Amino acid sequence: MGALAADAQAADESEDGVCLLSAETAQSAVRALCDTAGLLLEYLENVLDDGTDVTGDPTTRLAVTRAVGSFLAELPDPHASRLDSILPRLLSHHAIPGAMCPDQATRALTTRFMLPYLLQRTEDPHGLESEFFFLFTYGQLD
Fold first, then answer.
1. Which residues are CB-neighbours of 30 under 8 A, at least 6 positions away?
2. What confidence score (pLDDT) does residue 64 get?
3. How far apart are CA 59 and CA 70, in angstroms?
4. Based on the structure, what is the number of domains in the chain?
5. Are the C-beta atoms of 111 and 117 separated by less than 8 Å?
6. Phi-psi region of 56 (alpha: psi -120 to 50; beta: other; left: phi over 0)
7. What is the pLDDT of residue 38?
8. Does pTM surpass 0.70?
9. pLDDT per residue over 75-105, tens digit each?
10. Is residue 116 part of a domain?
11. Rg of the chain over CA atoms, in angstroms?
């Protein structure tokens, strides 16, 4: 979080060199967002583990999925292991009442919302560099 705060601080300096956002403020904001993502993830875990859905509203479940996916696409490390553990159930299709994806449309939206996280989580910069080097060396890229 310190690096993110430093980036935010560097980006928020005005032209006259006055800092608009302190590192402490940025860290506090990121920490609060991380805590919120953790609570939303806990909601998804409860829905998937025992069917406990206090809202009973599929739109709320999709909104929570979208929020978690968006946050963790930007900062996956804090909750990656928790999301990875429920991801297969989150993306699976079950035609039972209260399921996370009771129909194909919901499943498609859930997958769409999780896709940025999945791409971020599976990114391998070293593998990309070596593939680029291989293609450039052997004449595939000019």
1. 1, 4, 5, 75
2. 92
3. 16
4. 1
5. no
6. left
7. 93
8. no
9. 888 888 898 888 888 887 665 544 577 778 8
10. yes
11. 20
Residue 122 class from Cβ within 10 Å (0-12 exposed, 13-18 middle, 19+ buried)? exposed
- Residue 13 DSSP code: B
DSSP 34-54: HHHHHHHHHHHHHHHHH---S
107 with 84: CB under 8 angstroms? no
Reported confidence tier of residue 137, pLDDT bands at 50, 70, 90:
low
Q: Per the domain annotation, does 133 fall within a domain?
A: no
Which residue pairs from 50-57 have beta carbons closer than 8 angstroms and sit at least 24 positions apart in sequence? 51/98, 53/98, 56/98
Asked if residue 15 belongs to a domain, the reply is: yes
Q: What is the mean pLDDT of the chain?
A: 75
Residue 52 neighbours by CB under 8 Å, 6+ apart: 46
Instruction: Provide the residue range defining the domain that includes 92.
Output: 2-123
Residue 128 lies in a domain: no
